[in-house]
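User: Is it possible to get a 3D structure for a protein together with its bound compound? The compound here is nicotinamide-adenine-dinucleotide. I've pasted both below.
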Amino acid sequence: MSSESAIERSSISDITLAPAGNQAIDWARLHSPVVDGFVRETLSDGSLEGKRIALVVHLEAKTAFLATVLADAGASVVVGGSNPFSTRDDIAAALVSRGIEVHSIRESGYEAWEKDLLSIADTGPEYIIDDGAELTTRMAKHRPDLFAQLKGITEQTTTGVARLHTLHEAGRLACPAMAANDAECKHLFDNRYGTGQSTIQAMLNLTNMLMPGKRVAIIGYGWVGRGLATYVRAMGGHAVVVEFDPVKALEAFMDGHVVAPMAEALPQADFVVTATGGLRAVTSRHFGLLKPGAILANAGHHDLEVDVESLARESTEVRDVREGIEEYLWEGTKPLFVLASGALVNIAGGLGHPIEIMDLSFAVQGLGCYELVTGDYEVGVHVIPKEVDARIAAAKLAAHGIGLDEPTADQSESVDDLLGPQ
Ligand SMILES: NC(=O)c1ccc[n+]([C@@H]2O[C@H](COP(=O)([O-])OP(=O)(O)OC[C@H]3O[C@@H](n4cnc5c(N)ncnc54)[C@H](O)[C@@H]3O)[C@@H](O)[C@H]2O)c1
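Assistant: Yes, that's possible. Here is the predicted structure of the complex:
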């Protein structure tokens, strides 16, 4: 598509922002050897030629780079953002300048965001690369005819995969889906190291505060919670973990963190970070437990993990005190601070995951989509084949100049070794 017709079809903030966005995409490319190498080569066999792909992931430079690789492989790509707070308007403009249709404007509000997602649905995609199943669920609900024609979905997040399972169990999934999140090259690195580093970075940058000595309550000790706790400790802070699942709580304990219920964790917390994948991890019954001046942030997919709606209802005053920080005067007496309006703090209030991490996650998403195009998958939720996972990891290691030995026959026991010759 020419940039003129992409401008005509798109809804973005300002096309003149494109130069800065293009620089950021080029920088992302420079540090994405797997997507720019192994993935690009795999996709270039013509299989994606003319395929209509909707890419709805947090719209920033790394996502945009994936969009360009899909377009270079011949796909007709339409792009949107998976959260109304995380879109970078310069990146959206850059994609349009490269002839890719985009529907997303930063902080345009939930209503406009929904409208943009439906505009993307109306282009009639065959494949969706989704985040949080945001486009998938809206197509299923508002565009059932187009949803029924989908040929495949790949899904980035823990929350989105859970939503796909919910649809499938209810008999409402109409095509095969690839749980990119469940690939090892995704959750082992993105959820843990990527979210861990970028969330703590964003919290400290937004507040301009110091980590050593801080008590950080981490709600949820899944992949993301583990990463958060690792980085809190690495920077001199103290993680206090809250978990429902006894096995994960025990793991947090064995990892050397304090484990406590909300009633004990919150009163001592300087920062509270949610990473549950659910709703209302911090809500009305918890606000009274927090100490005055506590800072609340969310790393999970839902904007309501920290229940900002209830907090606003129970506060006498809400005001912006610094870019990305809102102060709530809870019950007219206690100041509580919320980062990035309760949206994913590392993306809405920071630069998102490090590029090298998204190089892995987007390799999984890109190759997951390729698998759906070229493979023969039934309706249901699948994981990319183990050998594809392994090839992504090998490509990443090779980009670091690291080669591996292969096992030889004498390194494993044969039945003769075990039982003697027959
Ligand atoms: N910010 C990002 O960039 C980013 C990156 C990856 C994943 N995510 C999102 O982060 C969330 C967590 O992902 P994950 O992979 O760690 O999931 P996970 O399922 O591995 O872990 C979630 C943990 O939270 C626990 N939990 C749930 N509700 C709880 C509550 N109210 N109190 C205490 N513990 C609770 C669960 O028992 C579970 O152990 C998801 O929404 C996911 O989509 C965000």
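Residues 157-159, 187, 190-191, 195, 219-225, 242-245, 248, 275-278, 281, 299-301, 344, 346-347, 353 surround nicotinamide-adenine-dinucleotide (CB under 6 Å). The longest strand covers residues 315-322.
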